[in-house]
Amino acid sequence: MRCTVFGTGYLGATHAACMAELGHDVLGVDIDPGKVAKLSAGEVPFYEPGLAEVLRRNIEAGRLQFTTSYVEAAAFADLHFLGVGTPQKKGEYGADLRHVHSVIDTLAPLLDRPAVIVGKSTVPVGTAAELGARARVLAPAGDAVEVAWNPEFLREGFAVEDTLHPDRMVLGVDRDRPGSAETQLRQLYAPLLAEDIPFLVTDLATAELVKVSANAFLATKISFINAISEVCEATGADVTQLADALGYDARIGRRFLNAGLGFGGGCLPKDIRAFMARAGELGANQALHFLREVDSINMRRRTRMVELAAQVCGGSLLGANVAVLGAAFKPESDDVRDSPALNVAGMMQLHGAVVSVYDPKALDNSRRLFPTLNYATSVADACENADAVLVLTEWAEFAALKPDDLAGVVRARVMVDGRNCLDAQQWRNAGWVYRGLGRG
Ligand code: UDX
């Protein structure tokens, strides 16, 4: 089949490459000529394990191209995916839909044949119906333009795996205007459906809500364990053992019960806020009041970490040398959007600490966002003369650190484990002060 994908960020670039991997002819579209040039040359403009290989393989096979031209895109295919970003509005909780609107407003006037536009971006419930109406007014093909919604659940760091082997697929269709979206997507995703991956067809609103509800649930699960972690700290209990014990209950499950610095990134924080904003517009704001608490527990983790750092530095961060290991919002990513690690590093600097940050992949993005922090070239470089070492992103390289690796480098043997990824006993036995979040 032939399809286009609008937007070539984490979501769009991965979707385009993976659809080509399934054997389809794909044209990726982006308004940024720099991104298009990079992708066309087989380079991924961000860090995503395994994506470069899929990209190159399919470019070489002639199945995957990129362009900035909407005219070319409209001529290329009659199935168009929409994968542009929906960030948080400046100064408001709601989602900023300007990129989504801009794709529809530019593409629709070029649609002179029947076409299906399939949204993958995370949008407030009601957006798909509105975009459908908007597209049909603007398109010469008029009522022959269908808008469907196929939310994307991929995790950064596992984007290729999640796209080619999702745990489920959801397709929202316009129940008032039966079209060909379902038939076309069943054909497009045939190799996945052959693996018995559940494929749920719903109305548009349900599909939009599935995505935000899933992210709200994950955020709630993380904030739940972080709230329990606060109680653990107050009593001297150990939240990691507690989470293990909870996790054996199959109804609860151990995943997303890692207490620590909390969630960040380009999705969870802004999605729960946009969800609250939309519920408010719909007159259902009471229903999601608890998400405010989820958000607040999460943000409190960051200030708690700064307090803990001050505590282990003798009561004040003023003049303290602090090594921060990790800047990305999670391991296997170079994404620093709303990164708890980078936030904490910035806050400690405001409190007078000399902060030295190291991350295996996210240094360039961090420098752009926080140019005034010191960036180190290795773990040892960051930890030189440190009064405290803080692990704020659980990269495997940091989780594998042994006390002897750093003993001769630091000024004081103090380890603060913001992700509860180190063996507390091992560090204490080696004579270090070890502090974790929620670990007594
Ligand atoms: C998330 C959803 O998982 C994905 O389905 C959706 O499509 C996009 O948003 P992502 O943003 O890539 O994906 O990150 P995720 O792996 O969910 O982690 C989010 C944050 O939660 C990270 O900052 C991570 O460190 C944190 N986290 C995760 C915890 O603090 N504890 C956990 O137990 C799990």
Automatic annotation (TrEMBL):
Ranges for domain UDP-glucose/GDP-mannose dehydrogenase C-terminal: 323-424
EC numbers, comma separated: 1.1.1.22
InterPro entries: 6-PGluconate_DH-like_C_sf, NAD(P)-bd_dom_sf, UDP-Glc/GDP-Man, UDP-Glc/GDP-Man_DH_C, UDP-Glc/GDP-Man_DH_C_sf, UDP-Glc/GDP-Man_DH_dimer, UDP-Glc/GDP-Man_DH_N, UDPglc_DH_bac
Protein family membership: Belongs to the UDP-glucose/GDP-mannose dehydrogenase family.
Keyword set, alphabetical order: NAD, Oxidoreductase
Protein name (Swiss-Prot/TrEMBL): UDP-glucose 6-dehydrogenase
Domain of life: Bacteria
Short name of any one Pfam family annotated for the protein: UDPG_MGDP_dh
Reactions catalysed according to its record: UDP-alpha-D-glucose + 2 NAD(+) + H2O = UDP-alpha-D-glucuronate + 2 NADH + 3 H(+)
Organism: Rhodococcus tibetensis
Pathway: Nucleotide-sugar biosynthesis; UDP-alpha-D-glucuronate biosynthesis; UDP-alpha-D-glucuronate from UDP-alpha-D-glucose: step 1/1
Matching SMART domains: UDPG_MGDP_dh_C
